[in-house]
Structures are given as structure tokens and as C-alpha cells.
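Dear V.,

Thank you for sending over the compound details. I've combined the ligand you provided, S-adenosylmethionine, with the protein sequence from our construct and run the structure prediction for the complex. I'm sharing the raw inputs here so there's no ambiguity about protonation or stereochemistry in the SMILES, which I know was a concern on your side last time.
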Amino acid sequence: MAVYSAAAAVLAGVESRQGSLKGLVYASNFQNVKQLYALVCETQRYSAVLDAVIANAGLLRAEKKLRPHLAKVLVYDLLLGKGFGGRGGRWKPLLERHQARLKAELARLKVRQGVSRNEDLLAVGPKPGPASQVPRFVRVNTLKTCTEDAIDYFKRQGFSYQGQASGLEDIRALKGKCFLLDPLLPELLVFPAQTDLHDHPLYQAGHLILQDKASCLPAALLAPPPGSHVMDACAAPGNKTSHLAALLKNQGKIFAFDQDAKRLASMATLLARAGVSCCELAEQDFLAVSPSDQRYCQVQYILLDPSCSGSGMPSRQLEEPEAGTPSPERLRALAAFQQRALSHALTFPTLQRLVYSTCSVCQEENEDVVQAALQQSSGAFRLAPILPSWPHRGLGTFPGAEHCLRASPETTLTGGFFIAVLERVEVPSSVSQAKAAASELTPSPAPKRRKRRRKAVAAPGTQPGK
Ligand SMILES: C[S@@+](CC[C@H](N)C(=O)[O-])C[C@H]1O[C@@H](n2cnc3c(N)ncnc32)[C@H](O)[C@@H]1O
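Below is the predicted structure of the protein with S-adenosylmethionine bound, written out as C-alpha cells.
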């Protein structure tokens, strides 16, 4: 694979938080690891500058086949790196056609910022938007450790535990090596935004999952009790599946589907690292999974987190508010799939509770999809009233839409997200209990800030399989 395609794939993986830069570089199988690593690092460093230059030069509008991550890597090398030299393949002539325009946009940016060297653009940089203030959320994987032990491990590493946050203000004020327990989710630790834990031994050993708070809510709100059967309809790369397994305590069954073989392969690695043993993975189109298949006759819980525009993902909100805005055609296609998937999920005969989530902020992929599926279910399902104290609610586009949750860097200090919980109108009592437990997640008492030393978390590798 040419270095540019490899770098684009790694960059996309890092931005969608599929792994650490280093891990993805090694997983790419690209021979010259050093060259690839340097190219991605530098492209990332100039990310905001490159986004601005590419957008202002209209490169992606003019070259429809050029994907954004590849464009970024190529433009980095053309304008700021070593130049293509003998590299670049078929992209070289294409980029060279736009070279003058791209150079002019870079020059214009420097004039606007009042700097003369490329390097100086980094120092001035675009003003950090609210997305860059989203803290680093860390979910403790209770299949492998517990919150107290994880907290103790960080304390021994010189981090200062500030106790449980009482609200967003505590989280906003976090800095340096301080960390908190989330006010809502009892297994979620919160660190300052710039904390990078991808190389942390507890993360490498699967004791910690680096997962945004909003993305932890779907499994927490589905709240399947241990022993139950759950379906994860669009599951890869598997962060929510591993969360479901932790809630099930590995007891019961998760049927996880995804139609992307590559993503499923990294999901298998993630699940093994997280100690998940109750999950059956299948490379399959969820729309083709039959509701009358006897294997699924006990499935009462479905998590549906389908492909979406990703317009709520923080990395896309940094510089160009328009950069994450999908075209109307793409939105229509996505929404059509999402609605088919949701309506299909609601036809599983034993289903009692379903969580629909996206990392999109577009009404078309969220409230509109839920409204259409509810209408199609002819009153068999309704929106469950969840987390009444959550500050950001669904857009009031239909009666009851306020039961949906939205999330954003500005309102909840998370990525942009949408969640709806649908429940069957007639619910048997066991599910009512789960529903009641999840309607206002009440964390167990937070581990206190203590001086006393506690038993160490097993150093990764010392207790294999734990
Ligand atoms: C937003 S991602 C899921 C993220 C995942 N829930 C997690 O938390 O890690 C959407 C996934 O849906 C998968 N997908 C898209 N269409 C599908 C289909 N028809 N059947 C099954 N999976 C599908 C994509 O391959 C992608 O991996």
C-alpha cells in the first residue's frame, strides 16, 4: 500500500478513536513504520491548518473521488512536508493541478494570522472550539477491574483524585493531573481534555476503555440485567458491545452484527482484550437477520447504533463548522437506512426495550427517524422517559420528542450525540425493573478520596485473563 493511503487510513482510525496512532500504524502492516508514523503525526499537527486550506481551495468539491483523510495527507506533503518526489502515484498530477490554489490559500492564511513561517501557524492556530474542551472520559472495564482499583492505580502514578464531580462546572475546571468520577455514570473517570491514555498500561490491558461519555449512555440506558439476551445490531468496532458485556457481567448472550469484515476483525481484538466472553460476532447485514430465527427468541434488548454522518464527532467540529455537514443526498441515504434498521429491529417479537443512538447532530438522522419508526410500529412502542435531569433534550419536532437525549460539547461537555430509548407498551415485570433502574441512573456512592493505600490493580500481564 502506498504511504499516503496507509497514512489516510491511520488518520481516519485515530479520529474515530479506533486506536492509538502507534497501534494503528503497526496494525497497518506498512513496511516503513517510521515514515508512516512521521507523516501521520505531522499531518495531525497541522490538521486545523490543512482543513482550512483544503476547504478554502474547494479541493474536495472539485475532486469528488478524493476522500478527506487522503486529501489531508497529500496536501500536507505537498505544501508543508517533503513534496511528492517519486511518490504520489495517480494522485500526484491531480494534486498538482490544484497546487497554485492551495499555495495561495496557505499564503492567505498566513497573512490573516500575521505570521510568515508555516510553523508559526501552529502557535497562533485557530481558536480552540468547544469541541477541543471535551474532557477525556475513561470507562473502567468492570469485567477486568473495579473503579476503586483503577482510581488507586492513577493515584499511585501521581494523578490527583478529586472525588465525584457534582456537575459540569467541576468537570470544566479540571486541569493538570487531576481527575474526577463522573456525576452520572459510576464507572466513568474524567480527565482533562488533553490527557492521552492510549499508551497507558491499563488501557493496553483492556482494564480501561477510552470512550466518550455520550457514547457510554446507550448501553447504560439499555441496562440489560445479567443473564439476558441482547442484540447489538451495528456493533463494530465494539465499544458499546464491551460495555453491554460488562453490564451483563458476561452472563447471558450478546448477538453482535456488523457487515464490515475489517471493522469486525478489530472488534474481535477489542473484545478479547476487554475479556468479553458472552458475545457471538457475525459478519452480517442486520436487515437480513430474521426476527423469526429461533436463536433470537429470547432477545428482549436491542442496541441500534447505525452508520451515521458523524456530524457530532468532536474532531470534525474543530475549525470548519461546515466540514462535518453531510450533503442532502448523503443525509437522505443515511436516514433511509437508519429508519429501515430501526423499523426492522422493532419487529423482533420478544423485544421489550431498544436504544437507538447516533453520533450525528442532524434532525433527519435522529428525531425524524424515531418519529417515523414509532408511527410505523402503530403504537406498539413508545419513547421511554429517561434521565429527566439531562440538560439537552430532543428537538421538539413531535410530541414526546423531549424524551430523547441530545449531547454536545457546549451543553454536556461531550461529543455531539443523540439517544432515544423505545419500550414496548406492554412490558413484563423483569424489564420494568431494568427500565426503572435505568430511567435515572443513580450511581453507587463514589469512592472517597483517601490517603490509605489499597491493593494494587493487577499490572497488565501479571494476571492474564483477569
Ligand atoms: C456507528 S458504527 C457502530 C459503532 C459501535 N456501535 C461502537 O460503539 O463501537 C456503525 C456500524 O454499522 C455497520 N453497519 C452499517 N450498515 C450495516 C448493516 N446493514 N448491518 C450491520 N452493520 C452495518 C458499519 O459497518 C459500522 O461498523
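A first observation: The chain has three domains: 2-122, 130-212+444-462, 214-439.

Warm regards,
I. M.
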